[in-house]
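Protein chain data
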Amino acid sequence: MTLDHLSLLATFQDDFLAAVPAADPDARVPACGDWTVRGLVEHLAEVHHWAAGNARGVKGPALGEGPFDLAPHYAAQAALLRETLAELDPGSGCRVLAHPDPLGPGPVRFWHRRQTHETLVHLHDLLAASAGEAAAGLVGAAPEVWADTVDEVVGVLQPRQVGLGRMEPLRHPVALVATDVGGAPLWVLGAPGERADEVAPDVIVAGTAEGLALTLWRRLTPAEAGLTVTGDRADFEAALARAIVP
């Protein structure tokens, strides 16, 4: 299934913006330490602003220190990002997340996907803050979208964390299986891409694509996500204890 990331990005941004007015700015965001709704909204606005600058290859003006009127502030940066990505050729060159340097050359389409999943995860965070707890099912995204979130963690974000020296390579790769997606796709955390066929993981983690994604992003525990862990559970727990995502 080919995903239209720009369409998904617009949908998730609209849903995020719609949820901001109903959220208490001082409410804690579950599973995110002492982060509040205000910090969450300002963070995603800043990330959109930063990503738009990287896509254009030009650093945008600083947003200032705030405090901001949250809904208009987020709306402006969401629109900036959407307009930027819509105007640029997806195949044109820009700065993208990389390693061993934090940024390197890559195509604009990188930001289509990266910002879709950034917004999706933080939409979950915002809805969890309003609900008072993190749980699966808060965001109405299709399993295939969550599967793409898992794929990005396994293929892009976790290898980059290793490449930047933010975490050690996993000693024992972990197999992940999405049970609610056609064909039950399998990923091997710690052995992305072609290397996935070269390893025999000691542990297999199965569950919904959303459950896998939110567990990798450390928003849910494996138990909260309803995941089934077969094999050495310690391998998976050791992986989750590390900085898998930025």
Notes: Helices lie at 5-19, 37-56, 70-87, 109-131, 143-163, 209-216, 233-240. Residues 5-131 form a domain with the Four Helix Bundle (Hemerythrin (Met), subunit A) fold (CATH 1.20.120.450). The two ends are 27 Å apart (CA to CA).
